[in-house]
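Propose amino acids for all 448 sites.
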């Protein structure tokens, strides 16, 4: 068996220092991405109109589902690689990379073909209104074509301990997008097509950097050759057993998003859909530290679990929980106070702005405990217990999110819908905390 290379920071650095390095880099990368989504929406709203911004929001649940596939492969493959690194089995890691790439290529091509052939019924399913349809159709066609370029496998890079290149993998395409967006929308007058083309161009840049990292870069530990891109049934089973909960999380978010769009459209019409499209991006930006913590601690937990270093795992979880709760409460308070100024940046004086301000002031409180679920997810995925997360996600979707949404829709009250979405986040966080405490009881370490 190959010897483990010396100098692995996952083993040598202290927990606090390692968390600061990995979590800050991933948080910065994701925050930059969400900053792009906000500026993208800003450019579209100012350059095309609020209806165009609503069209992007309509298509978001479908893109969440696509991200669920890449997240499944990233978290599942990353968990396997991190554990194999802890055991010193590097050759297995290369096979994992090849399997992940094969699955992504095949699945993305199939989805693109199916989506283009059934775009009109897809948009109806997503809750598209008559006013939004022309914009959503133009935007959706281009996004479907670019699915194969929409992941950079940064989760695999982080699992190898290469947080620097992983950060670059996030930042480079986002910067490209930020440059091209105003050029295509305002200078070339391409409208919403310009926004989609800018996104596609940035994704192509991400794909190119991934090709360099995995096929040409000499320092890559899991460097492979094109011939190694193949499906392995045993590896695939291990990847999916860990990563499927991540997919179901995105699937649940996608279904909730679709149902939410339908209900919001029925209750508040195009105005409410357009307002929520902006609010969701503001919330996404504010919640980036949760995703950064999750992605940062997962390779740490997986490596320490593989090496049976339970005390380091204990310290990692304790630091993470304390941070996300403190940050979540502060972020919610700031968004509540600044809702009028923040939303006014997009649409200073409009009916949509009034609806959006009310929504943001209510929905922001869902951030208070929004970081508990990502930490629970990171823990179970890191130790290879994907079935437990699967149960948690299914319960949150079937027992909490969908029933409450249906109840809110029956009331025909838009404020009631916003409050329902907020309460859902609290209930989901409570369930995740229960699962996290249960796991640590069985491992005979501290509760939180």
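Proposal:
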């Amino acid at each position: 068996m190959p010897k483990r290379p010396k100098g692995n920071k996952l083993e040598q650095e202290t927990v606090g220092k390692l968390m600061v390095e990995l979590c800050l880099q991933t948080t910065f990368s994701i925050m930059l991405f969400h900053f792009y989504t906000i500026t993208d929406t800003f450019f579209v709203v100012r350059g095309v109109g609020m209806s165009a911004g609503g069209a992007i929001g309509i298509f978001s649940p479908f893109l969440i589902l696509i991200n669920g596939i890449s997240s499944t492969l990233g978290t599942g493959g990353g968990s396997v690689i991190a554990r194999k690194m802890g055991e010193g089995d590097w050759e297995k890691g290369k096979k994992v990379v090849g399997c992940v790439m094969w699955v992504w290529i095949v699945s993305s091509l199939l989805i693109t073909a199916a989506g283009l052939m059934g775009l009109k019924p897809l948009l109806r399913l997503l809750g598209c209104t008559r006013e939004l349809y022309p914009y959503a159709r133009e935007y959706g066609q281009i996004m479907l074509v670019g699915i194969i370029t929409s992941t950079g496998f940064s989760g695999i890079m982080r699992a190898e301990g290469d947080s620097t290149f992983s950060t670059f993998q996030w930042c480079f395409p986002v910067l490209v997008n930020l440059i091209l967006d105003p050029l295509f929308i305002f200078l070339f007058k391409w409208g919403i097509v310009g926004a989609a083309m800018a996104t596609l161009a940035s994704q192509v840049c991400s794909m190119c950097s991934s090709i360099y990292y995995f096929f040409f870069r000499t320092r890559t530990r899991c460097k492979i050759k094109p011939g190694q891109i193949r499906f392995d049934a045993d590896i695939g089973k291990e990847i999916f057993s860990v990563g499927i909960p991540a997919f179901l999380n995105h699937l649940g978010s996608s279904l909730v998003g679709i149902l939410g769009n339908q209900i919001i459209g029925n209750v508040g019409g195009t105005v409410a859909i357009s307002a929520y499209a902006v609010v969701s991006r503001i919330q996404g930006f504010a919640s980036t530290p949760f995703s950064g913590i999750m992605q940062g601690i997962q390779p740490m937990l997986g490596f320490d679990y593989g090496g049976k270093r339970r005390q380091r795992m204990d310290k990692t979880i304790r630091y993470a929980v304390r941070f996300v709760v403190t940050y979540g409460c502060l972020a919610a308070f700031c968004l509540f106070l600044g809702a009028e100024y923040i939303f006014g940046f997009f649409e200073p004086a409009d009916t949509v702005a009034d609806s959006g301000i009310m929504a943001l002031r209510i929905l922001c409180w869902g951030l208070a405990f929004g970081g508990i679920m990502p930490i629970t997810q990171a823990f179970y995925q890191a130790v290879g217990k994907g079935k437990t997360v699967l149960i948690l996600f299914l319960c949150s979707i079937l027992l909490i999110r969908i029933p409450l949404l249906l109840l809110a829709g029956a009331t025909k009250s838009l404020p009631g819908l916003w409050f329902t979405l907020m309460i859902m986040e609290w209930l989901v966080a409570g369930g995740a905390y229960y699962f996290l405490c249960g796991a640590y009881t069985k491992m005979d370490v501290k509760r939180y």
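The CA atoms of residues 183 and 189 lie 8 Å apart. The longest helix spans residues 233-286.
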